[in-house]
Structure formats: structure tokens, C-alpha cells
Amino acid sequence: xxxxxxxxxxxxxxxxxxxxxxxxxxxxxxxxxxxxxxxxxxxxxxxxxxxxxxxxxxxxxxxxxxxxxxxxxxxxxxxxxxxxxxxxxxxxxxxxxxxxxxxxxxxxxxxxxxxxxxxxxxxxxxxxxxxxxxxxxxxxxxxxxxxxxxxxxxxxxxxxxxxxxxxxxxxxxxxxxxxxxxxx
Length: 184
Known about the structure:
Helix content: 25-40%
Shape: globular
Number of helices: 3
Order of helices and strands: HHEEEEEEEEEEH
Distance between the termini: 58 Å
Mean pLDDT: 85
């Protein structure tokens, strides 16, 4: 009888320790896109690499991306440091104003002709585009080295990501979030 008590205590302890793991299972990019993006976008869209006009004139680049949601308004922030220049770009993107095909991924990232890169170079570019002719995305650019702030509107936002799987998941999650906003 005493052995059964210890077995039950052991099972109870195991359940107590294991249940938080079950409760914290990773969110699904299609079923819960907002939670998935909030949890995963920052790690997937943070890049560090060197780039420049030649292999001998490279500048260090660090770009960190974070996301928050206010209903169907996505607030995307990108902190970017290139050499000694740094800026914070904040995009307010009305997801319900975008079409379901507004988010795409392409392999690689654009560099001027003849430029070189090395390091943990981004493998894909995610593009979020408002309908043609609509500058629906509010943009604020704060340049820390000059102290200037610009408020603008744009049609396109891009993010660099490090792996194809990340790009696929981000496109899937953003497309699902847009679809959910259209259902409201």
C-alpha cells in the first residue's frame, strides 16, 4: 500500500511538472497567427551580417524586428544598425486593408551591383504590400545618429529573414491574420 502511495505521488509530481509544457505548446501559424507572429517573428527576422561595395569595404549590419497587434492593426518595428548609423522604423499596418495575397517571400535580398556580403546573410525577403496606389501603411523613421524623425506613408514594407522555413511560416501566419481580419 505504501508503494502505491509513492507511485501516485510520483505520477502527480510528473503531471505537475509536465502540464506547463503541454499548456505552453507552440502556437500554430495558421490557427493562431497573431500569437505565432508575436512569439516567433523577432527571432526569425533578426539578421546580422556584413555588406559593402567590395569584400574589403564591408560594414556590419544588424536588423532586429518585433511585432505587436492592436486588433487588426499590426505594429512592426525594425531597429537597423549599419556601421555607425542607426534607426528605428515603425510601421502601422492595417491588416484589414490588405488583400490575402499581400504577403510574399522571395529568395535572397537586394544588393547593389558588385556589392559583397558575408556572415549570417538573409536568405529571403518578405514583402507586405498595400493595394496598388494606396499608401495605407503609416511609417515613422527615427534616425538616432542625426536625431531626425520622419513620418511618411508607404505601400510596401520588407523584412529580411534567415531561412526559407522562416519565410514560409511568416507568409503563412501573416496571410492567416489578414484573412481573419477580413472575417470580422
